[in-house]
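Let us practice reading a record.
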Amino acid sequence: MNANCAVAALRYVPTCRWLAGWILCGVLVAGGAWPAECAPQERAAGSPSPPAESPGAERLSQRLSPLISRRNTGTQEQEHTAPGRPQQAPTSLAALIAEAVQNNPAILAAEDAVHAAAQMPAQARALPDPHFIAQQFAVGSPRPFAGYTNSDFAYFGLGASQEFPYPGKRGLRSAVAEREADVRRQSAEIVRREEIEKLKEAYYRLAYLQQVLAIHHQHDALVQQIAAAAEIRYRAGQGNQQDILRAQLEHTRVLRDLSMTDQEGGEAQAELKRILNRPQGSPDVVTEPLALTELTLPQETLVARAREENPDVRERAELVRKSQAEVDLARREFRPDFGLSYMWQRTDPEYYRAYYMLTFDVNFPRRKPRQAALAAAEINTERARREQAAQAQAAQAEAIKQIVDVRGSDEQAHIYREGLIPQARAAFEAGMAAYESGREDFQTLLSSAMDVLNLDLEYQQTLLAHQLGIARIERLTGTVEP
């Protein structure tokens, strides 16, 4: 490949179609240079010779030569290190899930929250902190121990006090804390499933993009085959230069699609490494090819598990239990708490005796704030029940929707694999033979090649949609399909 290809091609553009030269130059700059054989060297006998190149076209070709040369160099490097053909062995999804469970920061933070919440019941169950008292009472002077030997009012005292909540309050507070720990546990399960679902989505999307890269390379091979057949017909005087230009345009589109797919693959790699907590500069993940995962459980079982095993629904259920415990505690808060204190006071032992004081106190809760607290707890309980019912309905509806989508994509994938794709390939092969023998035009042949490309891409998109649906069902139900 070299810049002279463009110059040679421009010389074959008729003067009356000077605009086509501009289009050709734009294609060459965007898509790279032609193969050497794309510039015909001989014409069949009787064919009209091309007109002389205009001065404007000559200047344009001179300006484009260095740009085309640089594009050629970049294209060769890209083809030499084409993505989608990794050398390292693929990593299974199960291995990455195990790694994410061990290293994902969000999952680990949620587990830490569970461990912290597990320490709360012991704190709620404990008695209030005791109080220890040291007193010194002086008489006649602010000096310490003034009057200690000559007054029976001066003394030094030690004491302690302890508050005792009404029986049952500490147990109910502990129950509320235990329910909060259960809520945290379900919240951690939600985080774990969400991160695993994101991992599966990134993994399946990366596998899809790697397959798309291979499909574009296969399509480019078909385009090159078509271009070679068009060149043969052009040399024989049976074709026209427009067919060669259109083949090269399609090759340039393949380069664009490869670049865009590689960009999306880089984004998927970044998401995978984020979930796995790997350095962004670490080696890229190589996925296994996409394959259909069959649903092994009936719809009724999956819907029941979405209602019973879904962590979002379970979290709402734990919130209901917590609210009920808060209602019981609010009712018990109407009961009084108690206090007990003991004080020992010592004056001069030579003249006076010691004093001993035991105190028992009771508080009387105000009813109005306690009634408001009870009403709020009952309202929160009813709200939690309604949220649980709404979440259960949403989980079941989402499960049914995903099951329908998965079964539909499963059926469509079989149609692509066993019907559409083989038929499109057979049509292209027949069209190629007809084009080489002059019984089919170039546009029909190129359309057949595009049908093969589009159906291959649609099949991979169907596989991706199917696997993403499986991942969502697994998150909703907690069932891992083999």
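A brief commentary: The two ends are 50 Å apart (CA to CA).
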